[in-house]
DNA sequence: AAGAGTGTCAACCGCTACTAG
DNA sequence: CCTAGTAGCGGTTGACACTCT
């Protein structure tokens, strides 16, 4: 562990020498959580000192926001989230924190990482500048419809699986959701009417991304996962651990999950029951052979199609038509 | 089995904006 | 206004995990 002191603007040389860097230990996490549970967040520099942490205020803030907050959603980025990220990024560019506002529980850091490791990587494979119009068009006319299609497939397959499983009553994950009647019209993007070069995004349902986007996006695909997301310290949040745990304080309740959590203005207009039904779908599982991996969008096998699209797009740009 | 290569993501850095005194 | 403290953002790094040979 690197315990080298940092040169801060601020004052006390002794403190500076004690400042710690690198990965957080469980002990530090508990100190931070305990302190915030008692005193709330904010004023991070003094918080750090008062909590007895040899960390910068910045470091504490980051640790809390990106990792320890009870409402942080962990795990793979769902297909819907991918779609939303593509859509919002096409509109706002690298405004990660702004994009993150529309993906409840996701941090700007996580979205940024996703973009860099998946999207930029794929652009690189296609030898395409991620900021080019070409790349944006590929996203818009190829990848986003592809994502919508996969979301639909997964949803449809889930419905089939659900129907099947209700009659077989096994203990599978899909079966656990079998008492619901999943609506495979959950996302009803008018895919059949879409064609290359045509403005896509005509939607039949109420979903829209912020600012009246024309791309349909569902909310969290898996609320079950959301609520049971592998929190680093689940026992802590359920009040089982920690000498200084205060049952009267609200660590147990995710502070960012009010009743109208999903009534995000203009974004998540779906009714909660419908979403709760939908929540039982797990996009990462195979439903009757339909794989819905979060990575599937970027399958190498589809790079040829992408390349073809890019080349066609290039021709179009050069000639003014196809 | 082991080393190299690659991917992922937590954490850090530098910068800007905001605010209170 | 000016300054110091604080919060937040986006870019970057590095450690670790995983995969491939």
Automatic annotation (TrEMBL):
User: What molecular functions are annotated in GO for this chain?
Assistant: DNA-binding transcription factor activity; sequence-specific DNA binding
**What's the protein called, per UniProt?**
Transcription factor MYB108
InterPro entries linked to this entry = EOBI/EOBII-like_plant, Homeodomain-like_sf, Myb_dom, SANT/Myb
Q: Where is this region: Disordered?
A: 161-185
Q: Which domain of life is it from?
A: Eukaryota
Myb-like domain location, by residue?
Answer: 16-68, 69-119
> Keywords of this protein's UniProt record, alphabetized?
DNA-binding, Nucleus, Repeat, Transcription, Transcription regulation
Segments crossing the lipid bilayer: none
């Amino acid at each position: 562990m690197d315990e080298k002191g940092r040169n801060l603007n601020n004052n006390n040389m002794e403190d500076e020498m004690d400042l710690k860097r690198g990965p957080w230990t469980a002990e530090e996490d508990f100190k931070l959580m305990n302190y915030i549970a008692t005193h709330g967040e904010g004023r991070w520099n003094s918080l750090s000192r008062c909590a007895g942490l040899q960390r910068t205020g910045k470091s504490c803030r980051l640790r809390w926001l990106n990792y320890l907050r009870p409402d942080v959603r962990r795990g793979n980025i769902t297909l819907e989230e991918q779609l939303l990220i593509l859509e919002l990024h096409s509109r706002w560019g690298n405004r990660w924190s702004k994009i993150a506002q529309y993906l409840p529980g996701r941090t700007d850091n996580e979205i940024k990482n996703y973009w860099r490791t998946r999207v930029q990587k794929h652009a690189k494979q296609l030898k395409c500048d991620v900021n080019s119009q070409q790349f944006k068009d590929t996203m818009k006319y190829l990848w986003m419809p592809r994502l919508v299609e996969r979301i639909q497939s997964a949803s449809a397959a889930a419905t089939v699986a659900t129907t099947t499983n209700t009659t077989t009553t096994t203990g599978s994950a899909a079966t656990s959701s079998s008492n619901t009647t999943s609506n495979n019209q959950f996302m009803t993007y008018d895919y059949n009417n879409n064609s290359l070069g045509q403005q896509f995004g005509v939607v039949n349902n109420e979903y829209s991304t912020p600012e009246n986007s024309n791309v349909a996006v569902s909310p969290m695909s898996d609320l079950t996962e959301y609520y049971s997301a592998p929190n680093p310290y689940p026992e802590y949040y359920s009040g089982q651990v920690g000498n200084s745990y205060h049952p009267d304080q609200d660590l147990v309740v995710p502070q960012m999950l009010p009743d109208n959590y999903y009534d995000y203005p203009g974004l998540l207009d779906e009714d909660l029951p419908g979403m709760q039904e939908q929540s039982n779908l797990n996009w990462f599982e195979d439903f009757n052979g339909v794989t819905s991996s979060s990575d599937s969008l970027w399958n190498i096998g589809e790079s040829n199609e992408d390349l073809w699209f890019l080349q066609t797009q290039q021709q179009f740009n050069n000639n003014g038509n196809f």
